[in-house]
Design brief:
Malate synthase, coiled coil, eight-stranded parallel β-sheet, single chain, alpha/beta, malate synthase activity, binds magnesium ion, about 15% strand, 20 helices, binds acetyl coenzyme *A, about 525 residues, binds ligand LL5AMS7Z, acyltransferase
Length: about 525
């Protein structure tokens, strides 16, 4: 077996130990072929979407949707998930702050919020290993010491999606699946320790496109538990419903994972991205400015209500999504407005039936908690079945009204380039213009520009057609603005040239690039 040099560099981290590496190799041998065949299925289905197909509820799984079954009981420390904070796993200060934030759950992210440099990925594993053992500490350059409090949030870990590989760990010359790498290392080092401490190995599973992909995760769990001699059903996983195709198989996904399920979550940003991506060639499907695709537009309402209803029918928790607002420094009015937007977002979710929701920043934990405490005094509202809700396939794909504006196009260009630059610099989540931006939100930005250029209805509200030439002119102008905003020094020292080149590649390639993180990863360490 060939393993690669970087491993030596991290030997001291005690993460890529021989035993852990052997476990990863077993996962790879057993599941790599299936992973590849499922990715192939995605491509085949896309060809059908490109011909005009729309997703439907599957005839062959009708019995599952109509059947009377529930998921296995939820462990005690996942009963009350009213506020979940998320953040990149690789930053030790943020990890400590998140555990201490007062949120019930901390979703430690190897995915949307993490730029997957090998250093970030391995550091993330170290941070979590040490946090679980209560030994994680961090001293900031200003001397401030960060330590874990006695009362910590329950940990859920989000490995990367099935489409990514970890290029620093080769098996017979082939990179291992990033999902198996992130999951495998975390599980191997921590599953028994977590159980000993009264919790368990809990996960968030991102970017699944269908129930077959959930079944693969379930198979991985069964195998992993067997290998470590841990009782079957100990692993619990919440699946993000963040692709349009997965929404149509929400029931089936819960069913596949039912012994290991901890419900579903509405990953709204990737969900929007997924609709643009899947229907990119549909003449009737085009979205307005990103800022107009709110949670109130009919197809987003339909999706979230459908997820809430489906979860409760199966005794599963339904977890809401991420409002992009974060606290605004030095501007009280903008700050109050950001908090108000988050409050409204959480109010809608709790009233719809969600059992908890995400926040991006510790400063937002109290507001989300206050809303859930008010409307959900009990640990969760799973007993509240939403039989009153009926959602049709048509509602899930209803095209929203709205405008494409010059300002919306410019924001997509500017935010897209700035996010990619930050990501190439090793930061997977960044504040831009008072909003949290991560891989999912950046995907929307670049996908919209790609679509608006090609779609006959990609016309600005002032009548101009969005063209390559117009976008090219705006790229130059937006780069100049960015330089003014951040200063020439930061601009020169950054990776804006590469980020702009990648942004151009993403919008110029006729064949839509599935994820920006795939070509991006080639440029990352
Ligand atoms: C689409 C999706 O997948 S959403 C989920 C994935 N996205 C995320 O997880 C984004 C999470 N949020 C973040 O990464 C951050 O909030 C950012 C990057 C948006 C903003 O971070 P900052 O610029 O550091 O914010 P700010 O300066 O206000 O932070 C204040 C303090 O809160 C901490 N903090 C901010 N966000 C978080 C967080 N999510 N978790 C833990 N601590 C946090 C900072 O580390 C800082 O700590 P300090 O005072 O001890 O130094
Ligand atoms: O992962 C969450 C999302 O909104 O995307
Ligand atoms: Mg996502």
């Amino acid at each position: 077996m060939e393993r690669i040099q970087e491993r030596l560099q991290y030997e001291k981290s005690e993460i890529l130990t021989d035993d852990a590496a052997a476990f990863l190799e077993k996962l790879h041998e057993r599941f790599e072929e299936k992973r590849k065949s499922l990715l192939q299925l995605r491509e085949e289905l896309q060809k059908e979407f490109d011909q005009g197909k729309k997703p439907t509820f599957l005839e062959e799984t009708k019995a599952i949707r109509e059947g009377d079954w529930t998921i296995a009981p939820i462990p005690k420390d996942l009963q009350d998930r009213r506020v979940e904070i998320t953040g990149p796993a690789g930053d030790p200060k943020m990890v400590i702050n998140a555990f201490n934030s007062g949120a019930k759950v901390f979703m430690a992210d190897f995915e949307d919020a993490n730029a997957p440099t090998f250093a970030n990925t391995i550091q993330g594993q170290r941070n979590l290993r040490d946090a679980i053992r209560r030994t994680l500490q961090f001293t900031a350059p200003n001397g401030k010491v960060y330590q874990l409090k006695d009362e910590m949030a329950t940990l859920l870990v989000r490995p990367r999606g099935w489409h990514m590989v970890e290029k620093h760990f080769l098996i017979d010359g082939e990179p291992i699946s990033a999902s198996l790498f992130d999951f495998g290392l975390f599980f191997y080092h921590n599953a028994k320790e977590l159980i000993k401490r009264g919790s368990g190995p809990y996960f968030y599973l991102p970017k699944l496109e269908n129930a077959k992909e959930a079944r693969l995760w379930n198979d991985v769990f069964v195998f992993a538990q067997e290998e470590l001699g841990i009782p079957q059903g100990t692993i619990k996983a919440t699946v993000l419903i963040e692709t349009i195709t997965a929404a149509f198989e929400a029931d089936e996904i819960l069913y596949e994972l039912k012994e290991h399920s901890a419900g579903l979550n509405c990953g709204r940003w990737d969900y929007i991205f997924s609709t643009i991506k899947k229907f990119r060639k549909h003449p009737d499907f085009i979205l307005p400015d990103r800022s107009q695709v709110t949670m109130e537009v009919p197809f987003m309402r339909a999706y979230t209500l459908y997820v809430a209803k489906t979860c409760h029918k199966r005794n599963a928790p339904a977890i809401g999504g991420m409002a992009a607002q974060i606290p605004v420094k030095n501007d009280e009015v903008a700050n109050a407005s950001a908090f108000e937007k988050v409050r409204k977002d959480k109010e809608r979710e709790v009233k719809d039936g969600f059992d908890g929701s995400w926040v991006a920043h510790p400063g937002l934990v109290p507001v989300a908690k206050e809303v859930f405490d008010q409307y959900m005094p009990q640990p969760n509202q799973i007993v509240r079945k939403r039989d009153d809700i009926e959602i049709t396939a048509e509602q899930l794909v209803e095209v929203p009204e709205g405008d494409i504006t010059e300002s919306g196009l410019r924001t997509n260009i500017s935010v897209g380039i700035q996010y990619i630059e930050a990501w190439l610099m090793g930061k997977g989540a960044v504040p831009l213009y008072n909003l949290m931006e991560d891989a999912a939100t950046a995907e929307i930005s670049r996908a919209q520009v790609w679509q608006w250029i090609r779609h006959p209805k990609g016309i600005l509200s002032d009548g101009r057609k969005v063209t390559f030439e117009l976008v090219e002119q705006m790229i130059e102008e937006e780069l100049e603005k960015i330089k003014q905003e951040i200063g020439a020094e930061r601009f020169e020292q950054g990776r804006f040239e590469e980020a702009t080149a990648l942004f151009r590649e993403l919008i110029e390639q006729e064949e839509f690039i599935e994820f920006l993180t795939i070509p991006g990863y080639e440029k990352l360490d």
